[in-house]
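Deviation from plan, reported transparently: iron/sulfur cluster complex.
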Amino acid sequence: MESKAFKQHLLQELYAPFKNCTQCPLGTLGRTNIVWGEGDPDASLMLIGEGPGADEDAQGRPFVGRSGKLLTKTIEGLGIKREEVFIANIVKCRPPGNRAPTTLESSICMTLFLFNQIKIVRPKIICTLGNSPLQALLGADMKITKTRGTVQDWQGFKLIPTYHPAYILRNPPALKTFVADLAFVIEQLAAS
Ligand code: SF4
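Because the crystal trials were delayed, the predicted structure below was used instead.
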């Protein structure tokens, strides 16, 4: 079992050769910072979103804008501190105009970084936020409306999809479901 410090070292080694990454088109489309992800390198829970927005691009940190604040408030309301989880996105650079990443961009970036982040952190549970990470990991036929709040499998890891917090900001009535899904994630963590 690797220590937290060793896992942190492995993550730094993963990022180090790609400080100015241009391995996919998003590397040359105006990003300010690469947003690798952050949190406990030995976390039991990994939260995965789509990609950095304007605030994340400016600060180089994931989920720090309005959506991120809602996500942090929700997990902390359920008794989990933000620094106890690992938070990442399927692409590490902001797509211009907040468009969704293309399949090519997602596939290149995940192969280089996200899959390795998952293998280094080895969380007990992966929680995907919104359709993009769900479909990027489990296939284009997966639908958030059908799979949210259920336990799926990604390469032997338990994966539980829920909505993206940006969707909750646009559709406040869905907050109850979002909180219930994250409460289920935490229940499953306790049982793992
Ligand atoms: S999105 Fe990922 S693969 Fe593409 S340039 Fe950024 S870090 Fe590199």
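Strands lie at 38-39, 45-49, 86-89, 125-129, 152-154, 157-162. We consider this an acceptable substitute for the interim report.
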